[in-house]
C-alpha cells in the first residue's frame, strides 16, 4: 500500500508485516520506519497538514503516527483534532452495517455502504 502526503514530501509504504516505511520524496530514501502493527495494513492516510499519518490493520488496530519522528502517538488528546483525508468507519471482520452488506460478510473490504467506504 502506497500513499503520498498532501505536501508531496513523504511517501508512506505499508508492508505486509505491518511496518510502514516513510520515504523522503523525491529521493525515496527511508526517513523513518513505523513499527506497531501486528497484522497487515488495510488503510493508510495522512492528515491535511502532512504532520500525522493514520493506519489501520487487519486486526482492527488504529494508530496515529508523527511523520517527523515515525513514532506512534499513544496520547489520545494529541490526535484529538487530527483530520485525515480518508476515514474508515469500521474495521475488518467487524462489519455491522447490515442490511447494506450481505449477511455472510465478515469484512468491510469491498463493501460499498456509507459506513465502510472512505468519506
Can you describe this structure?
With 119 residues, the protein is mostly beta strands. It has 2 domains: 2-79, Thrombin, subunit H; 88-119, no CATH class. It contains no helices and 7 strands. It has strands spanning 2-4, 10-14, 20-24, 29-34, 41-46, 52-57, 62-66. The strands form 2 sheets. A 4-stranded antiparallel β-sheet has the order 1-2-3-4, with no helix packed on it. The protein is globular. The relative contact order is 0.15. Residues 87-106 have low confidence and may be disordered.
Overall helicity: under 10%
CATH topology of the largest domain: Thrombin, subunit H
Regarding CATH, which class of the largest domain?
A: Mainly Beta
Specify the biggest β-sheet.
4 strands, antiparallel
Strand content: 25-35%
Kindly state the number of beta strands.
Answer: 7
State the strand order across the main sheet: 1-2-3-4
What structural category do the secondary elements indicate? mainly beta
State the shape. globular
Number of domains: 2
Distance between the termini: 19 Å
**H/E order of the elements?**
EEEEEEE
The radius of gyration over CA amounts to: 15 Å
Number of helices: 0
Overall pLDDT: 77
| CATH architecture classification name of the largest domain | Beta Barrel
